Amino acid sequence: MAEVLNQVVEFDVKKIKAPRGNTLTCKGWAQEAALRMLMNNLDPEVAEKPEELIVYGGTGKAARNWECFHAIVKSLKELENDETLLVQSGKAVGKLRTYDYAPRVIIANSNLVPKWATWEYFDELERKGLIMYGQMTAGSWIYIGTQGILQGTYETFAAAGRKRFGTDNLAGKLIVSGGCGGMSGAQPLAATMNNATYICAEVDENRAKKRLTTRYLDEIEYQLDAAINRVIEYRNRKIARSICWIGNITELLQALIDNNITPDLLTDQTSAHDPLNGYVPDGMTLPQALELRKSNPDKYKQESYRTMAKHVRQMILLQSRGAETFDYGNNLRGNAVAGGFLPESEARNPDGTWKYPGFTPAYIRDLFCEGQGPFRWAALSGNPDEIYLLDEELMKLFPEKTHLHRWLTMARERVAFQGLPARICWLGYGERDKAGLLFNKLVREGKVSAPIVIGRDHLDCGSVASPNRVT
User: Phi first, then psi: what are they for 189, rounded to 5°?
Assistant: First the structure.
């Protein structure tokens, strides 16, 4: 049985790709859209580890296991236009007779009663096959690749520049961060789109190579000194270029500290939210870390917490030297303290606030208060030209939004699609409905050959409410 299952998984991973065009494989477009976006999440162009159903974010999955994935696909294909499929943590658990305008799919991921909402209990449930970690858009089937976080990162860097330097033109400024995966891989391009020079550290060479292939990253470097020397040269010459050094972020930060180099902007987007399957400790190679993760998970987590504490101390030191330092929503600060290697007094100010703020209260909250925020859409036809048409029509619809025009123009020039062609942009209260009506009109008139999927986002202003990670 295990051999047969493995054969099926290998076949499926190679073959999983969302259908294109306007021919239905389900009984209605709502079901078809859900099916295509689920499959798009696991397209090898999109997912980090499709063979494990992992889309991004360390362990963020699209379905609980392969049996559950196949059951969801079968259920979507059989779902009537007056039925609703219930999905709990990546498993189809029920099908109800509802009505035409009810949701075709309702999904709830990783929900635990607070008393039991610990990693230990979650891991126990996951081992029993009773839960999965859905991240934000993996388990809700609306991940569109690294572009999904790109504009939010672009907006964050621009807002940080305006707050600290009085301008969002970051030419001659150095941004330093950790990670180059599905989420963190947006940072190199977001930096250079703001004209900044950028360097990061990533322990997994394959992740960095994927960002290179999709043009989110300009260069990979294996020698630390060479990487630092070149990025400083780029900064001094005001060249907007990004470098990823293959290694641990604590080594990069220590080298900057030892060489008295202070970043202009400093953040981190490693998978610190997950001390076992996400974050990678320093003092060991990646293969050694992966082996320790399997052989002694408890020791691995202790090593992660030790490294997180060191990591936060380095960021606080660079902040004291003048770096504009902020947390990028990965709970690095919280886990550094929770792991027991960093006293809370070192990480917090006397009034209880963190010594370096989260990006949302520091830069994005004011936009949220105005109802500004991102949403995303994908062309189910699979035709990139239809996304470009929507770009042009949105600029006509909002002629006064020059910042939006700049983003859409640069996105067309510099953002490579992963899987189904898709776009993300920030619009405000009273604007998203107009965009939706525009999309409907273009589909109705046949200018767009298949429906457009509109989805929520990681930074949705009505849903971002994690105290130690975002708010």
Answer: -70, -40
pTM tops 0.85, yes or no: no
123-162 residue pLDDT tens: 899 999 999 999 888 999 999 988 888 888 998 999 999 9
User: Mean pLDDT, to the nearest integer, of 52-81?
Assistant: 94
At 71-95, the pLDDT tens digits run: 999 999 999 999 999 999 999 999 9
Determine whether domain 147-365 maps to CATH 3.40.50.300.
Answer: no
- d(CA 257, CA 253) in angstroms, rounded, equals 6
Tallying the residues shown for the chain, one arrives at 471
Question: What's the maximum distance between 2 C-alpha atoms anywhere in the chain?
Answer: 66
Please, which residues have CB within 8 angstroms of residue 226's CB and are 6 or more apart in sequence?
A: none
How many CA within 13 A on the CB side of residue 399? 1
* Whether 425 is catalytic: yes
DSSP string of 55-83, one letter each residue: EETTTEESSSSHHHHHHHHHHHHH--TTE
Angstrom distances, CA of residue 109 to CA of 34, 103, 462? 16, 17, 17
pLDDT of residue 12: 54
The number of beta carbons lying within 10 Å of the beta carbon of residue 24 is: 14
What SS3 state is found at 330?
coil
Q: How far apart are CA 413 and CA 408, in angstroms?
A: 9
Closest CA to 161 of 198, 191, 187, 199: 191
**pLDDT tops 60 at residue 277:** yes
Residue 401 has pLDDT above 50, yes or no: yes
Catalytic residue among 26, 180, 200, 425: 425
How many Cβ atoms are within 10 Å of 46's Cβ, its own excluded?
Answer: 27
Domain extents in the chain: 2-127, 147-365, 370-455
The span from the first CA to the last CA of the chain, in angstroms, equals: 47
Which has the minimum average pLDDT: 4-13, 103-112, 225-234?
A: 4-13
Burial 233-250 (b: 16+ CB within 10 A, else e): ebbeeebbbbbbbbbbbb
Residue 462 reports pLDDT greater than 60:
no
d(CA 13, CA 48) in angstroms, rounded, equals 12
Helix (H/G/I), strand (E/B), else coil: 49: strand
218-235: pLDDT as tens digits: 999 999 999 999 999 999
Q: pLDDT tens, 402-420?
A: 888 988 998 998 888 999 9
